[in-house]
Design brief:
The structure is a single chain. This protein is α+β, with helices and mostly antiparallel strands. The chain has two domains: 1-31; 37-46 and 71-188, Sandwich (Immunoglobulin-like). It contains one helix and eleven strands. Strands 1-8-5-4-2-11 form a six-stranded mixed beta sheet, with no helix packed on it. A hairpin with a 5-residue loop joins strand 4 and strand 5 (102-110). The model is unreliable at 59-69 (pLDDT under 50).
Length: 189
């Protein structure tokens, strides 16, 4: 009788172990906890702005007020990131480039890394605390793409034909858990 019980419990133990390993594997894939300790810094220049080097010897020098003018990027709106689900800081700018296109620029971004982070341009109001965590996919929004890095300064192009004046905020959005890591209300300049 003891041998029969042992034979019946072995498949049960194996099934429980397989289920436990599968559950742990799924949990690791879904939550990706290692990203909390992995930072990715991205430093991008603003498109359309050419870094200038010192003029070559013999070239005319200009005072800043005499620099030859060219159509340059124009800031339409700015905002400060506030923390939601994770501590988040930095500034956001909505910029019209010389060619008429628009970008959202994150400057000095500092947030946690996480699974499936995106940059959303939305019409939702920015609210502090937990009441502001889940509102950014409720109304009109545009995903500008995956977050390139959780630290640094980055640019996200708006699709052609999008009227940026229809949107009032930017969120660092975790699409996997439908939660904002941080957001900024855009104030027109």
């Amino acid at each position: 009788m003891g041998r029969g019980r042992r034979v019946l419990t072995r498949p049960l133990v194996i099934a429980v172990l397989v289920a436990a390993v599968g559950g742990v594997g799924f949990g690791l894939y879904w939550f990706q906890p290692w990203k909390l300790w992995q930072d990715k810094t991205v430093e991008e220049a603003l498109p359309g702005v050419v870094a200038t080097a010192a003029p070559p010897a013999g070239a005319p020098s200009y005072k800043p007020s005499e620099q030859p003018s060219a159509t340059s990027p124009h800031t339409l709106a700015t905002g400060q990131l506030i923390s939601h689900e994770h501590a988040t800081s930095g500034t956001v700018q909505l910029i019209r480039l010389a060619d008429g296109s628009h970008v959202v620029r994150l400057e000095n971004l500092d947030t946690s890394n996480g699974p499936d982070l995106r940059v959303l341009l939305t019409d939702a109001p920015v609210k502090e605390g937990k009441v502001g965590w889940h509102v950014f996919d409720d109304g009109n929004y545009i995903s500008l793409g995956k977050l390139k890095g959780n630290k640094g300064s980055q640019n996200y192009a708006l699709p052609r034909g999008v009227d940026p004046s229809s949107y009032s905020s930017v969120s660092i959005w975790c699409d996997r858990f439908d939660v904002s890591f941080g957001a900024a209300e855009l104030a027109r300049v």
